[in-house]
Amino acid sequence: MQMTITEKILAAHCGKKEIKPGELINAKLDLVLANDITAPISIKEFRAAGSKKVFDADRIALIPDHFAPNKDIASAEQCNMLRQFSREHDLSLYFEVGRMGVEHALLPEQGIVVPGDVVIGADSHTCTYGGLGAFSTGVGSTDVAAAMITGEAWFKVPESMKFIYKGKLGKWVGGKDIILRTIGDIGVDGALYRAMEFTGEVIKKLPMYGRLTICNMAIEAGGKNGIIEPDEITEKYVSKRARRKYKFYKSDKKANYIDVREYDLTGMEPQIACPHLPENVKPVSQLAAINIDQSVVGSCTNGRIEDMREAAKVIKGHKVHPYVRMIVIPATQEIYKLCIKEGLVDVFIDAGAAFSTPTCGPCLGGHMGILASGERAIATTNRNFVGRMGHPKSEVYLSNPAIAAASAVLGRIGRPEELK
Amino acid sequence: MKFKAKTWKFGADVDTDAIVPARYLNTSDPKELAKHCMEDSTNPDFMKKMTTGDIIVAEKNFGCGSSREHAPIAIKAAGVSCVVAKSFARIFYRNCFNMGLPIFESVEAVDGIKEGDQIEVDADAGVIRNLTSNKTFTVAPVPPFMQELIAAGGLMAYTKKKAGL
């Protein structure tokens, strides 16, 4: 039987040779993940079940990244639950403030998730690791509680959709623009319950950070997982990081797809998702009249070193507009250090931007950059729902890092080419 | 399982940030979360207006966005008896079965219910009756495995049994 990469990975994890979409399976998990918002419920459920032992102390990652460094007493209590549980169970993958990073940037960077894995996380952007050629998907806290006990999770094998990207990407156009264009095309439930497989000549040339950005936002189209076939680019990225053995899976030539979509990306402008849904996508040139109060560069979507470099390259030698706050948040400590080493921190601070320790922070309206009523932000984050970055009457536009940086200087949505 | 109550209607793509905004996620206490249920939705005063047992009726893709189980927890703790929608976002759907918020999929029912209508959801018969307009609609059947989960008392009860706890 011909199978997709998603079907092959799932089959290998439930001890079957073949599986079909719609089939219900119980899969062995390579990693189980939760953060300071979702883990407290998992921990309570784990304890309430009377469980004394986790299935594997080296395969449960607890990462306080959302409201950490602790933003208030209630958040401190939640983070402390993760800390105490990790000590109690000797979890090797608990990351304390100072060592932690935004979970979906941290785990691939540290080689803790690898190609061929099956991963669940109580965070919807767990689908990021599809960029490495892993099956990973977001679940709720109760699923994580059960998985911490059994090391397994049930899945309905998803139908797969194939997205083929052709052509040549223009300057300042990357993974973020590709996924926004796609979500704009199919809508926020266009891939509901499905696997989104990204392929084509553009993807084959796309560096790992762009692939992670694309898969990160599969959930924004309702997808169960996003995935990209691993190749030489993957090998180069993981070979020096992987803490476990990894395996490359590839889709069979005649595998079944419920839908195949082709995009020619030649000449595509940077894409922006307008309030209040990630599917409200427009090319940047149509939004030049939109003033902004804040620009955020960071998050699990665009907080990697290449994103920092892109924003720094645009803003170097310029000043953030007097009416704008620019907040730059590298996603991990390693990225933070590279920003110092490469002089990017100087570039941002000289431009008048704030530079922060890793946190999810403003992306979900937690802290470190909350919007007031009537304020508007451009952000490299992943969601622009009502109230997502603060007041329910604030607005968020989603973009790539170059556009967020250029807009910070212009005081309105704009492109790097407009900077003098 | 039968629910008979007044309905509150919501549009398409109600996200979990609208159901319970992230600014309140520094706790997982159901009562605290319930206070803010639907606060950033099109009906921000939902909690002031609703009465225990009321039913939420929504268009497609209810519960999209974040995986926060706080969303179904807030709805359940608010006293909402069940949610009927044209479709549910995947993680929200899974969470509801895991933590025990009854949900039902029916395109025709959503189209045939106006806000404030009295309805009766009869889960066993697989029908929704609009008592205000006197019409009956079919509910999409619950997949067998999900029925098994419900019968076991939710995912944790199912897991306990499996793990011999």
Work out the helicity level of chain B: 25-40%
What distance separates the N and C termini of chain B?
A: 28 Å
Q: Low-confidence runs of chain B (pLDDT<50, min 5 residues)?
A: none
How many strand elements of chain A?
Answer: 18
Can you summarize the main beta sheet of chain A? Answer: 5 strands, parallel
Please tally the β strands of chain B and state the result.
7
Strand order of the largest sheet of chain B: 4-3-2-1-5-6-7
Number of H/I helices of chain A: 14
Distance between the termini of chain A: 58 Å
Oligomer: heterodimer
Q: Which class do the helix and strand fractions of chain B yield?
A: alpha/beta
List the helices and strands and how they pair.
The complex is a heterodimer of chains A (420) and B (165).
Chain A (H helix, E strand, L loop, with lengths): L4 H8 L11 E5 L2 E5 L3 H10 L11 E4 L9 H16 L4 E2 L8 H7 L8 E5 L12 E4 L2 H10 L1 E5 L3 E7 L8 H12 L8 E5 L1 H5 L2 H9 L8 E3 L4 H8 L19 E6 L6 E3 L7 E3 L10 E4 L1 H4 L2 H11 L9 E4 L4 H9 L2 H8 L2 E2 L20 E4 L15 E4 L2 H10 L10
Parallel strand pairs in A: 2-3, 2-5, 3-4, 5-6, 8-9, 8-11, 9-10, 14-15, 14-17, 15-16, 17-18
Antiparallel strand pairs in A: 1-7, 12-13
Helix pairs in contact in A: 2-5, 6-8, 11-13, 11-14
Chain B lengths: L1 E9 L5 H4 L10 H6 L10 H4 L5 E4 L11 H8 L4 E4 L4 H10 L3 E3 L1 H5 L6 E5 L4 E4 L4 E4 L5 H9 L2 H9 L2
Parallel strand pairs in B: 1-2, 2-3, 3-4
Antiparallel strand pairs in B: 1-5, 5-6, 6-7
